Structure to design on (152 residues):
């Protein structure tokens, strides 16, 4: 078994880098389902996420990541669902702490031809199962609370 990378401490006064992510969801048989994708490096279940983009708002950047990584088009909320933290692996035995601001994206279309189609798998899960599949406790909590967040 390989040793997990040790998070690299941030320099004094430095803030944790922020990424933007999308919880891609749909209603199926009157229940909320979440689309998870596999990460390119470890193959674990994650949500689409990425770095800020100069010409885009946080929610627009999250929607762009959902397209590039999962082939999703839909309506993204401009209201954040919250934040979660994870250790971003950047090399052998090297990673750093990162935060992700999360936005809900209601899926209108799921395309088969998208930029990272050959690098990832994607799968729909019931909310509770999706929460069990992800490694990050804060993301797990956000997913479990999704049905309440989406209620009118």
């Amino acid at each position: 078994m390989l040793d997990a990378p040790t998070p690299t401490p941030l320099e004094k006064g430095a803030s944790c880098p922020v990424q933007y992510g999308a919880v891609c969801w749909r209603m199926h048989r009157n229940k909320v389902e979440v689309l998870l994708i596999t990460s390119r490096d470890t193959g674990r279940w994650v949500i689409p996420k990425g770095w800020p983009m100069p010409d885009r708002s946080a929610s627009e950047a999250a929607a762009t990541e959902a397209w590039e990584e999962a082939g999703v088009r839909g309506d993204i909320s401009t209201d954040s669902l919250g934040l979660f933290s994870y250790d971003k692996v950047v090399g052998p035995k090297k990673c750093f702490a990162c935060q992700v601001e999360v936005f809900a994206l209601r899926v209108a279309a799921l395309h088969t031809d998208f930029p990272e189609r050959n690098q990832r798998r994607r799968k729909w899960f019931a909310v509770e199962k999706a929460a069990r599949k992800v490694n990050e406790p804060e993301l797990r909590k956000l997913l479990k609370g999704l049905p309440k967040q989406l209620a009118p």
The longest helix spans residues 58-70. Helices lie at 58-70, 127-133, 137-144, 146-150. The beta strands are 6-8, 18-28, 31-38, 45-46, 49-50, 72-91, 94-110, 122-126.
